[in-house]
Structure formats: structure tokens, C-alpha cells
Write a structure and sequence with these properties.
The chain has about 575 residues and is an alpha/beta fold. Helix content is about 40%, strand content about 10%. The strands form two sheets. Strands 4-5-6-7-8-10-9 form a seven-stranded mixed β-sheet. A six-stranded mixed β-sheet has the order 3-2-1-11-12-13, with no helix packed on it. The two termini are about 25 Å apart.
């Protein structure tokens, strides 16, 4: 089961309203290449800016992106790709520069790195823009579509067979064709810019590829499939609109393999159309955030294998030469292993971001709102409990015992440590957190403690009404009847706990519907495998499920789980 991060994100928002990695290409491999995404290159600061008192990781920003180190991380990735004799080219699925819309110098720096890479390695780079890369030129945007295409002219556009704005197609090896789709809206911050023309253009280019004896590979910045439970609802700016209908069309057009980014997670998701055609969307994590990964892909007629590759070191001498403020201890920790350093950096950054998310304006509430006091008290108490020591004198575990809640022992120091560990697991991919896993149990029990310890004075009906209000605010019509379908009293939990579980239930859809595809290491069918007979029955049985009934089942399951823990 995957994507436990949805639980973490829901707390702030919802309470507010194997195969072994391939080391060498085998003889039957037609194509081997690398895929990176969301490089988010930043011009380094002259000196570190600090956001917390932590002496090593206190400079972690709210995005948890290693901005000052970004250029050196990109350099190391390019070095690894250049030295891998199997890799023929590099795909980059957008967000090349972090401030690319307003700082064209960042794009120029990235393009210079690509130029040097191509000249020294003889390998081609293919790019597509992300939402950070260009916009409508104006007061706050200097990089438009024309400027982007000019700067990156040698990185895909020079090989283009067909172009459509910033979208293009290019041949990869002897059997494949890249369809590089610009999925952005230049007038929006993160939202996709998909429309009927772009959907149909991809279908036309896929057909043209087949007509010319080639298999189509699609690359775009925004996600095609859900990489979080109900991503279209929770994180709608990160997934294309009408994504299921579009996935069905593209799968039926013969596209099996899609590379995307934007969500900053390593996640592989498959979808089967009603006709039995399967399409896989490989979201690649941001290269300059934990886990500092890119993908290695090998393709043959029958099999597509994939493996995560990690950047675990950079030139720290060059870092010290460009940025003031790093301590000897920080550099020593980086030199021990940059990936482990990046994980703790991410955890500090996520805590900083979520704590800021507890502010009224971030929660979307204001004094005078009907549930303002309830939401404010719940969120403040939750924050307090997260900051308490998890164990020992004056701990959350000690407080929980007063309410007959047994928080199990672990190595975590506080609630934030638990929450951010689960966040980092989502980013890294291949996470395995069943509902009964200790980490998940601890988090649920902390949330239950918040309700039990502070809100017994609130009338049950207030919780039920708040739950209905929050669910309605999500515009999920199919689950608006859940409160009428399930009785919390029959399951033996409090109304407050029922609110918590009822609101969280739709976020945990993936717990009941894991696609079984490993995020980082594995294999899927190649393009030559065309038997879809077994897929059709699977697809029909899935699409036949009534959405409201599915959520109802998940809700009852979660209520029972919480009850068993108590």
C-alpha cells in the first residue's frame, strides 16, 4: 500500500475546514536512457539564510529544496549519465530553473551545463518546460515561450520532426519516438494548460509514430495519473484535468509509457482503459530534493525495466567557494552521504512549511466563520502535541495514557519526526506503510489524543456538522451521504474521532487500491506485448465500482481500525 503522505497533508488541510537494478545493458535492449525532472536550478545565495535554530539543517526552506546545492547536484547527475556507457540520451520533464520565469540567467546557466554535457559525452538532451520555466512576458515574467525555445534550441527542438508551440516530437533510436508535450498554462502558476487540441495532438503524433514503424513515448511536466490518493481533488494543480478520460484516450492510441514530474515524488502508477490498454505514468522526483534521484530506463520489445539512480555526493569545495555560512559540521555531514543529509534537510523544511500552514490565512479560515473556534483549537492543539516529546516525562505518550491511549515505543523524538518521516517516504517512493504499520498507528493515535484530550466538551452534533461542512467544501458529491450511511456510535468511537476518520477516508483510497507497481525498481510490458484480454475484465470490474460505495467501505474499515487500536 502506498502514499501515506495523504494522511499528513489532510491533517493540516482537512481539519481546517525484485528486480535487481540493471548494471549493464543486455544484448536484446533496444534503448537505454536516463530521465530527470524538476531540476529547479537556483543561482546560489551569497550567504546562508536561516529559518530555524537547528545548527545543521536550519537553513532548510519551506520547499525543502536544496537551492544553493542545486547546480552541483545537477553537475553530479550529468557526470553519472555521461560515464554510463549504456545511456544514449537524457530526458528532462520540466522545471529546469526554479525562478525561470523571472530570472532568465538561471535558464542560461542550465543550458550551459547541458551544452558542456553534450559536447563532452556525445549524448543528446531532450527537454520540455515546466510551470517554473516560462510564462506570459510582463512585469513579473521575462521568460516567454520564444525565449525558452531559443535558450534550449539545441536540446530537443533541434531534433524535432513536428513542433506545436513548445511541444515537439523526435526519434529515439531505431524503434521509438518521443512526444514531448508542453502541458503548462503560461498564464497560471502551477495549473496545467491542457485542452482538446493538446490531447488530440498527442493522439495524432502517436498514430503517426505507429504509421512510421515506431513506438511512442510521452513526456510532459504535469502528472497524467494520480500519485496521491484523489490527487485531482487534493492537489489539482499537479495533475492534468480530465485525467482519466485522457489516459483512456492515450492508452487506446497505443501509448504505454509516460514520464512526468511536478509532484516531486518518485511514483509509478498504471491505468487500464475499458478497452484493456494499459498506460503507465512514471513521476520522477525533483532531482534537487530528497531522495536526489533520476531514472535509468532500458527498453526492449517485450520489457521496459526501470531503476532509480541516486546522487550521493557533490563537490563541497565548490559549494564553500560560492556560498558563505556553511560550517565544518555541515560539510562533514554532506560528505558522509548527501542523500542522508538531504533527507533530514527535507524533514526540517516540511516541518517549517506545515507549521506555517497552521496560520489562519493558510488554513482558509477567519474569525467569525461558523467553525472557526473549533478548527483553530483543533489545529493549535495538534501543533502543540506534535511539538511535545513523544516519550519520557511530559510526553505525548504519558498524556495519552490518561485517556487509555497506548502510543507504542519507537525511535522517533516527537510527532513531527513521525509525520516528516512519512512525508519523506512518499517523496522517495516504494514506501510500504500498511494501516497497521507502527508509524501510521502512532500518527493516528496522536490525532486521536488531540480529540480526546481537548474536545470532549463539544457536542457530538457539532462534530458531525463540521464533518459535513468540510466534506462539502471538497466538492466530493459522491461522499456527501456517508454521514447518513455510517453510525459512529455503533462502531464504538467518539464523534470527534469519527470526524477525523470520516474526513480522512477519501484520502486513503490507495490503501484499498494499490496498483502493485514498484515505484523505483521493476519492469512493465514492452510495446510488442499487445494481448489485452486479461486487462479488459480487470478494467471493467474496477470502473463498475460505485465511487460512493467504495468510500463507504473504506470509511467503515478505518473506523474499525481506529477502534481496534484504542
Amino acid at each position: 500500500m502506498k502514499k501515506i503522505i495523504a494522511i499528513i497533508l489532510s491533517v493540516t488541510v482537512l481539519l481546517s475546514a525484485c528486480i535487481v537494478g540493471v548494471s549493464a545493458a543486455s544484448s536484446d535492449v533496444d534503448l537505454a536512457y536516463a530521465v530527470a525532472s524538476d531540476l529547479h536550478y537556483n543561482i546560489p545565495d551569497e550567504e546562508l539564510e536561516w529559518f530555524s535554530e537547528d545548527p545543521i539543517y536550519g537553513y532548510a526552506n519551506r520547499r525543502a529544496a536544496m537551492e544553493n546545492e542545486s547546480g552541483l547536484i545537477i553537475d553530479e547527475m550529468l557526470r553519472q549519465v555521461a560515464e554510463n556507457d549504456n545511456i544514449e540520451f537524457l530526458l528532462v520533464s520540466g522545471d529546469l530553473a526554479d525562478n525561470g520565469r523571472r530570472l532568465i540567467e538561471e535558464h542560461q546557466a542550465v543550458a550551459e551545463k547541458f551544452k558542456n554535457f553534450e559536447e563532452t559525452s556525445g549524448k543528446q538532451v531532450y527537454v520540455i518546460p515546466g510551470n517554473h520555466d516560462y510564462g506570459l512576458p510582463g512585469e513579473y515574467c521575462v521568460t516567454g515561450a520564444d525565449e525558452f525555445k531559443e535558450i534550449y534550441a539545441d536540446f530537443g527542438y533541434d531534433k524535432a520532426i513536428v513542433t506545436d508551440g513548445l511541444s515537439y516530437t523526435a526519434n529515439l533510436g531505431d524503434k521509438y519516438r518521443l512526444i514531448a508535450l508542453d502541458s503548462n498554462d503560461p498564464d497560471k502558476s502551477t495549473e496545467d494548460g491542457m485542452n482538446d487540441h493538446k490531447v488530440e495532438w498527442v493522439i495524432e503524433q502517436a498514430q503517426k509514430a505507429y504509421d512510421e514503424g515506431r513506438y511512442p513515448i510521452l513526456m510532459l511536466h504535469h502528472n497524467l495519473l494520480d500519485h496521491l490518493p484523489l490527487q485531482r481533488i487534493l492537489s489539482h494543480d499537479f495533475i492534468i484535468r480530465d485525467h482519466i478520460a485522457t489516459a483512456n484516450k492515450w492508452a487506446d492510441a497505443g501509448i504505454k509509457l509516460v514520464f512526468s514530474g511536478h509532484e516531486h515524488c518518485s511514483d509509478a502508477t498504471t491505468h487500464t482503459s475499458p478497452s484493456g490498454n494499459t498506460i503507465s505514468d512514471f513521476a520522477t522526483t525533483s532531482l534537487t530534493m530528497y531522495p536526489l534521484q533520476y531514472r535509468y530506463i532500458e527498453m526492449s520489445d517485450d520489457t521496459i525495466t526501470y531503476e532509480a539512480k541516486t546522487v550521493d555526493s557533490i563537490d563541497t569545495d565548490a559549494l564553500l567557494a560560492s556560498v558563505d555560512g556553511y560550517s565544518d559540521e555541515q560539510i562533514a555531514e554532506m560528505n558522509k552521504g548527501l542523500n542522508a543529509f538531504a533527507k533530514q534537510y527535507l524533514k526540517n523544511g516540511v516541518e517549517y512549511r506545515l507549521e506555517r500552514g497552521f496560520q489562519d490565512e493558510q488554513l482558509g479560515i477567519k474569525p467569525g466563520d461558523i467553525y472557526y473556534t473549533l478548527v483553530r483549537d483543533v489545529v493549535d492543539t495538534f501543533n502543540d502535541v506534535l511539538n511535545m516529546p513523544l516519550y519520557g516525562e511530559g510526553s505525548a505518550q504519558e498524556l495519552a495514557k490518561e485517556y487509555n491511549i497506548d502510543i507504542p515505543d519507537s525511535d522517533y523524538k516527537d510527532g513531527w519526526d513521525v509525520a516528516t518521516e512519512l512525508v519523506s517516504a512518499h517523496y522517495a517512493g516504494s514506501e510500504d506503510y500498511p494501516l497497521y504499520e507502527k508509524d501510521v498507528k502512532i500518527l493516528f493515535l496522536i490525532m486521536s489524543l488531540v480529540i480526546k484530550s481537548e474536545f470532549d466538551y463539544i457536542d457530538d452534533q457539532v462534530f458531525y456538522q463540521a464533518a459535513a461542512s468540510v466534506i462539502a467544501a471538497q466538492n466530493i458529491d459522491s461522499i456527501s451521504t456517508i454521514l447518513d450511511m455510517v453510525s459512529a456510535e455503533e462502531e464504538g468511537v467518539t464523534a470527534g474521532e469519527y470526524l477525523l476518520v470520516a474526513v480522512a477516508s477519501p484520502l486513503l483510497d490507495s490503501f484499498a487500491n494499490d496498483d502493485g507497481v514498484d515505484d523505483n525498481y521493476g519492469a512493465i510490458d514492452g510495446y510488442a506485448r499487445t494481448d489485452t484480454s486479461s486487462n479488459i475484465s480487470t478494467s471493467l470490474s474496477t470502473t463498475a465500482l460505485d465511487v460512493a460505495n467504495k468510500f463507504y467501505i473504506i470509511l467503515r474499515y478505518l473506523v474499525k481500525v481506529l477502534n481496534l487500536w484504542m
